[in-house]
Amino acid sequence: MNTGSKLAEYLLEIKAVKLSPAEPFTWSSGWKSPIYCDNRITLSYPHIRMFIKEELASLIKSKYPEAGAICGVATAGIAIGALVADSLNLPFSYCRPKPKEHGMKNQLEGEIRKGQQVVVIEDLISTGGSSLQVVRYLREQGYEIAGMAAIFTYEFDKATEAFESENCSVFTLGTYSDTIAMAAKNGYVEKSDLEQLALWREEPSMWNPVSQL
After folding, report:
1. Which domain holds residue 50?
2. Contact at 8 Å (CB) between 181 and 198?
3. Which of 47, 90, 131, 209 has the fewest CB atoms inside 10 Å of its own CB, making it the most exposed?
4. For 61, how many CA atoms within 13 A lie in the half-sphere containing its CB?
5. Domain count, the chain
6. Is residue 207 part of a domain?
7. What is the pLDDT along the chain (213 residues), one digit of tens a residue?
8. What CATH code is carried by the domain that includes residue 146?
């Protein structure tokens, strides 16, 4: 079993991924979604946490051999980013998409030395908006971005275009396609749901199960 399939199996098993095409979730953006993914749940399962840490570390060694520092995207990328940095024996920091509104009003927590190639760690790629806010901020501060690594992506065309426009590479352990394939194989969804799940990924901002009936 490849990494994407194994990750999908784990996420479905612990309900970090929930699928509900008939009664969709509503995202903060207002989008209706037949899937909800919360990778923070994986931190409560040592064997899954270890799997993700080791696979992300291996991915970074392969895709970003010049990496000199790891920076997690707050908040969901902080824990897994720290684990990966520890595995690679690299400095760790984390960055918010926007500055804090109190205290020192920091956006970056921790230190990155100029000249270090930074790999940004995210838990989940949806449209890429908040992730790329961090990339832009770090670049504005004079830091060199090697690229981004994440646990999971919804595979939206909008995200692909956004990362390309920012000239920022991104690699993930698992994908929406991996997850839906595993869900169908292991009986988490009915075959009749697969069309709706495919339609959502093509036009997530317009999708509504009622309008598709």
Report:
1. 3-20+28-198
2. no
3. 47
4. 11
5. 1
6. no
7. 899 999 999 999 999 999 999 899 998 888 999 999 999 999 999 999 999 999 999 999 999 999 999 999 999 999 999 999 999 999 999 999 888 777 667 899 999 999 999 999 999 999 999 999 999 999 999 999 999 999 999 999 999 999 999 999 999 999 999 999 999 999 999 988 999 999 999 889 889 876 444
8. 3.40.50.2020
Domain membership of residue 147 (yes or no) is: yes
Within a domain: 186: yes
What global pTM score does this model have? Answer: 0.93
In a domain, 179, yes or no: yes
Q: Are strands 92-95 and 108-109 parallel, antiparallel or unpaired?
A: antiparallel
Distance, in Å, from the CA atom of 76 to the CA atom of 87, rounded to the nearest integer, reads 18
Q: Do you find a cis peptide bond into 26, omega within 30 degrees of 0?
A: no
Q: What is the rounded distance in angstroms from the CA atom of residue 33 to the CA atom of residue 37? A: 10
